Amino acid sequence: MADNIGSETKLQKWVPEILLLLILLVGITLQYAAAYQKSFWGDEAKTAMRVQKGFEAIEEETPVDHQPLYIYMMTLWGKVFGYSEMGLRSLAILFAILTLVLTYLLGRNMYGEKTALLSLAILSFSPLFLLHGHSARYYSIMTALAVLIALALYRFQEMKTLWYLLVYAFAGTVMLYLVFNSVIFLAGCSVWWLLRYLGDRKRQAIDFVYWILAQALILALYLPGSGRFSTFTENYFQIPQLSSWLMDYLKRLAFTSYLFGLGGTLSPLKPLAWVGIEVVFIIAIFAIYAAWKRKLSWMPVFFTVWITILAVLASFFSEYHNQIWQNISHWFLYVLPFLALWLGIGLAQMKFRIMVFMGSLLLVVYAVGIYNFFTDQQFLQPVLAAPWRTVYDEIKTESKPGAMVICTGFDTSCWYYAEQYGYQVSLPWDLERKNGVQPVEVWWVHSNVGGIRYDREALDQEFLKVAESQYEGHEVRKFILHDPTIRWLKTRLMGHSDYEYLVELYHFYSP
Fold first, then answer.
1. Contact 183, 302 (CB under 8 A)
2. Could you say which of 329, 358, 383 is where a domain stops?
3. Which tens digits make up the pLDDT trace of 278-321?
């Protein structure tokens, strides 16, 4: 009997470690599966095209509204692991894994094992983290840095060890060189630290001095990049002319909060989404109550609210303020670990049966979002689901020598994959410049981005008439249905151009 009890006790000690490994394994598997299944979307294709031009072209090729650091990182990574989709995405997956581990460590340091595991599970299964964690961009890199900074900040406040402050300063500097919007996060760190410092009855003046020195170190290390930051603010930001600031702000805040909470692969007009909204809201409110009653740290709540509010506000000052705010969810992906910790607190403080019930509901909602992701359904941004490999596989299989491939719709992926498949992309007006030499056939790949600044319907219709007049037959193949409820939402409430399918492949030929 004693041996059995001892065995059970040893097994119980291993339960947290087993759960940790299982959750990490599922999270990592999802990221690799997503990277394997999905084609590059537009921004990833731009990155892939830039990194293949070599180090010498990076400064010139990097647009004003981006920092070049992640391009340098991916160029170096590509030289070692290749420039294929999996080769470039493997760097992002590495940082996605690091994000999961750091989120667990932050949760365990602040709240204990139970909250850490629940928070890790929420982040691992988050449809939004699945959507962007593997992207060959800077999203998972900045997310890992944000959690590392928060962990170092917390450890410095608790242990007063300068080592953690140095980690904070170094990671903060790297994050500044990575993305401009990290200014919002680092400002939040200073506000949080100051609030904690003023509320500490045992505070010491030397700690304040150390903190000021850490900020000075970050600024000193970032001096070489300050010129690019200045150019960015001068060229990219402008005061918008809006008739109703409050209404537009609330609309953007609601859309962004929805993406952070439930992801981008579940229509807000579906009943299951309403259940998900209620579940997330209840868990979040209970977490606030539990943190207040049991005097737990408010750090995850603070950073989630701080970043979201200021990110939405910053979207008004973008050059393309009517369009760009839809990208907040991946530009500020580093909100997700803090939201996961916030929800993890709420679940961990509930009674066991209630925790299981609420956690199961959230898992069901997330599972449907994950299913939609892998089956290309209900994408709020369908451009992320474009099956470019499938499109060009069909062209490659059926096209004749001398076929012309034309891309329209401003999706860089069309040009990128055309090059990967050995085609030289033409533009619509090239068809009229052949001076009587008509291509044997034309494959017109038309992508519907759907944003306000991409309205080319008149030009597309004009090209369609020209092509139909030159070829006796044509057929159309369509890819990625735009969910009707999302179409209604985006056209009625966001003012976007309407479209039924993301990609339309026209084949013009003469028998």
1. no
2. 383
3. 999 999 999 999 999 999 999 999 999 999 999 998 888 765 55
Q: Rounded distance, CA 416 to CA 41, Å?
A: 10
* Residues 427 and 367 both lie in one domain: no
Q: pLDDT digit string (tens) for 226-267?
A: 888 888 877 777 666 666 778 888 888 999 999 999 999 999
Residues 275 and 227 in one domain: yes
Q: Which residue has the tokens 């008739």?
A: 243
In 3D space, the residue among 470, 414, 416 whose CA is nearest the CA of residue 447 turns out to be 414
| Domain span holding position 37 | 2-383
- Are 435 and 460 found together in one domain? yes
Final residue in a domain of this structure, among 329, 349, 383 = 383
369/455 same-domain check: no
Between CA 445 and CA 448 the distance in angstroms is: 10
Task: Look up the pTM and report it.
Answer: 0.92
Residues 299 and 402 in one domain: no
Q: Which residues contact 413 (CB under 8 A, 6 or more apart)?
A: 39, 40, 41, 42, 44, 45, 386, 388, 447
Residue owning tokens 């090239």: 430
Alpha carbons within 13 angstroms on the beta-carbon side of residue 82 total 5
Overall domain count for the chain: 2
Q: By the 8 A CB rule, do 57 and 89 touch?
A: no
Distant-in-sequence, close-in-space partners of 80: CB < 8 Å, separation ≥ 6 = none
| Spatial CA neighbour of 396 closest among 416, 424, 422, 425 | 422
Neighbours of 489 (CB within 10 A): 17
Q: How many helices (H) and strands (E) does the chain have?
A: 22, 5
Considering the domain architecture, whether residues 351 and 462 belong to the same structural domain is answered as no
